Amino acid sequence: MRPDRPLPRSDRAQAHTLEAAIAALLLLTSVGIALQMTAVTPLSASTSSQHLENQLEKTSKGILASNAETGGLKEAVLYWNDTADSFYNTTGEKYYTEDPPKNISLGESLNRTLDKRNVAYNVNIVYQNERGFQRRQRMIYRGEPSEHAVRASHSVTIVDTDKLRNSDGTLSATTVTDAANDPDKSLYLLDSTNSTTGVYNHVRVEVIAWRI
């Protein structure tokens, strides 16, 4: 057998060039993979923000649903001082601008779940008046929502025999129809349905929440 002869000078140069090209390609590929794993892009930030908004929406819906099951939503809607034409214990407005009252479970749930997570929120009661127009009564107002605010709502049916609440949260002797029919009193819920059905109105409790 003839011993191997060394490659000509030109062949050795080509081999070295090929090895260098392969090494450079491997290096670029490694850098590209590393950048893909560590880069923070506007899209990833947007995805994270959307995830937080979805969580906040689910939390708000959960608060409304749990209070609806226990009667807390109807309690909140009827926590109304018909002689003052406002919710109880408000200062200067018909609605609350600070902490919601502790006498109703909805206010307690909002404070326990959202306030402690640095989440601001507004609560509205949406209803239809006697002319069929949609009206919105503020219950809690804490400012203008951000562009990332979420909205959750739950419906409540008020019947003619439902009674308003006293300031301590107990039932009063005044029904919603008594308050609406008394010319010296006014009620933000107006009977827009046929009285023979026994239904006073259908309302929607709406929570608008955003992170601060």
Structural class: alpha+beta
> Terminal Cα separation, in Å?
84 Å
Tertiary shape: elongated
Number of helices: 5
Run of helices and strands: HHHEEHEEEEEHE
Q: Which sequence of strands runs across the widest sheet? A: 4-3-8-5
- Oligomeric state of this protein: single chain
- Rg, Cα atoms, Å: 32 Å
**Total tally of structural domains:** 1
Mean pLDDT: 80
Poorly predicted spans: 38-45
Number of strands: 8
Bin the strand percentage. Answer: 15-25%
How would you characterize this protein structure?
By secondary structure, the chain is an alpha+beta fold. The chain has one domain (47-211). It has helices spanning 9-38, 42-70, 72-77, 105-113, 176-181, and strands at residues 80-81, 86-87, 119-128, 134-140, 150-159, 163-165, 171-175, 199-211. The strands form 3 sheets. The protein has a 4-stranded antiparallel beta sheet. It has a two-stranded antiparallel sheet with strand order 1-2. β1 and β2 form a beta hairpin. α2 packs antiparallel against α4. The termini are far apart. The model is unreliable at 38-45 (pLDDT under 50).
